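Tutorial, part two.
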Amino acid sequence: MVRVSLETAQAIQAMLVAAVLAVVLVAGSTGSVWAQSGPGHESRGMVDLQNRSLDRSDKPATYRRLARITYPQNLMDAKVEGVVYVKARVDDAGNVLTAAVERVDPPEAAALGESAVEGVKNWAFEPARKQGRPVASDEIVPVVFVLDRQTSPKISGATLGPVRVALPKPMTSVTARSHEDLS
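Running the prediction step on this input gives:
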């Protein structure tokens, strides 16, 4: 039998609840983006659990509604991939007031920044809470642009989990029928 302190159990419970909530919120979105946490990702929630009291009324912001982010065709054709870290100022109602590129990894993928920022501006968040009250916050959102669905780039310095931009669905070809085939 493994024994853990009440604080550790509460921390584990809080992380599990946050993970399930993120999956539910993202799964209920438009389906064009999805969140993923992987090795090398430290969310603010984990850091907060280590650095602050476990006051249940203090909560970081979370995703509420994610609008589609477009992977520009010319950048897909050029095989440009990367992670755009967007700094979003979120008000106490969860609306994005401002969004700007914080950094891009690798820097050669900077052209993806405009698309990421435009998408994040249309998102909505559950606002951060301090002592149970909604508060404005600055969030660093990692927007992942990759062409290989199996690729999971390392994420660092973000306050929220990564969001992967969905690739467009391939068009099915429709063959033209001759006039004789239609009768």
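The first strand starts at residue 33 and ends at 35. In part three we will examine how such features are distributed along the chain.
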